[in-house]
Amino acid sequence: MITRRQFLKVLIATCATAAAGSTGRASERSAYQVYLPLVQAPAAAPPEPTEPPLPPTPVPPPDDDLPPILDDAPIVGRATGTAEMAIAWLTPRADPGYTPFDIGVIVQAYRSIGDAAGIDWFLALAQMAHETGHLTSFWSLRPQRNPAGIGVTGEWRSDPPPDPSGWAYNTQRQRWERGISFPTWVDHAIPAHLGRLLAYALTDAQANETQRALIATALAVRPLPSHLRGIAPTIPGLNGRWASPGTTYGQSIIALARRMRYGPASIEGNAGYGSSHKG
User: Fold this and answer.
1) Is this model's pTM higher than 0.70 or not?
2) DSSP per position, 81-121
3) What is the pLDDT of residues 85-96, one digit of tens each?
4) Residue 71 contacts by C-beta under 8 Å, 6 or more apart in sequence?
5) Helix crossing, 100-117 with 83-90: angle to 10°?
6) Is 19 strand, coil or helix?
7) Which residues pair with 157 in a beta bridge?
8) 271 pLDDT exceeds 80?
9) Widest CA span of the chain, in angstroms?
10) Which of 5, 53, 221, 255 lies 20 to 30 Å from 79 when distance is taken between CA atoms?
C-alpha cells in the first residue's frame, strides 16, 4: 500500500510535469501568433498621386495631305509645303538683318498672296531662297528687297551712273549694278515676284481675275515680252528664261524645295545669287 508521503510526492511530480508542458505549449502558441500577422499582412497600397499625370506629348500631323514636289513641278496649284517648314529653313540661314519676326512676315505674305492667286508659293519661296542665297545677297537685303533677281541683268559699272534710278551700289561687290529695288516686301516685292511667275505660267486668257490683277501689278514693275507669256507652266520651264544661262535653273529650285520640306536641318552654304538674270 502506498503511503500518504509517497502519494504526495507522485502528485507533486505530476503537477510539475503538467505545468512544464503547459508553459511550452503557451510559448509555442505565442511565437506562432506573433509570426502569422507578419506573413499574412497585405502589402501597403501606393500613395495617391498629388498631381494629375501629364498629357501625352502632341504629335505633329503628317504632311501626307501636301502635294508631291514633282520633277516637272507646276507653278500654278496647291502649295507643296507649309509656312512652318519655310520659316524653319530660312530663319537660321538668313542675314542677321532679317530677324525671325521678319522671316515670318515674309513667308506669311507669300502664303496669303499665293493662296489667293492659286500659285504654289512654297516653290516661289524656294526660288527666292535659291536666288538670294537664303536672304543673304546684296539685292535681297534692305533697302533693295529684291526676291528673285528681278531686273538684275548683270549690267554693272564702277563709276556712278548719270541716272541712278534702276541702279544700286552693291557694297558686297563694290560696284554699281542695274536692278530693281522695292520699298516693301509685302506690298511690292512679293506681289512683283508671284505676279511675274504667273505671267510666265499663264496667258491672260488662261488666268482668272485675281491672277490677271497680280500679273498686271508685276508687269507694271518690269514688262515681260508677249512671246514669253504662258511659256513656262512648270518650274523647269524657266530654264534659260528667268536666269541666264540657267540650263538647270528649275531643277535647282525643285531640289531646294525638297530640302526645305524634308530637311536636312543643317545650315548649308548659300548659293544661287551670282548668276545673271533675265527675270
Assistant:
1) yes
2) S-HHHHHHHHTTTS-TTS-HHHHHHHHHHHHHHHHHHTB-H
3) 999 999 999 999
4) 236, 251, 254
5) 150
6) helix
7) 176
8) no
9) 160
10) 221
pLDDT in tens, 174-210: 999 999 999 999 999 999 999 999 999 999 999 999 9
Q: Which long-range contacts (CB under 8 A, 24 or more apart) does 241-249 make?
A: 241/200, 241/278, 242/148, 242/149, 242/200, 242/277, 242/278, 242/279, 243/131, 243/149, 243/275, 243/276, 243/277, 243/278, 243/279, 244/154, 244/275, 244/276, 244/277, 244/278, 246/275
Q: Find all residues with CB under 8 Å of 95, minimum gap 6, and list them.
A: 135, 136, 140, 141
Answer for the pair 158, 184: CB distance below 8 angstroms, yes or no.
no
The pLDDT tens digits of the residues spanning 166-183 come to: 999 999 999 999 999 999
Which grid cell is 195?
505676279
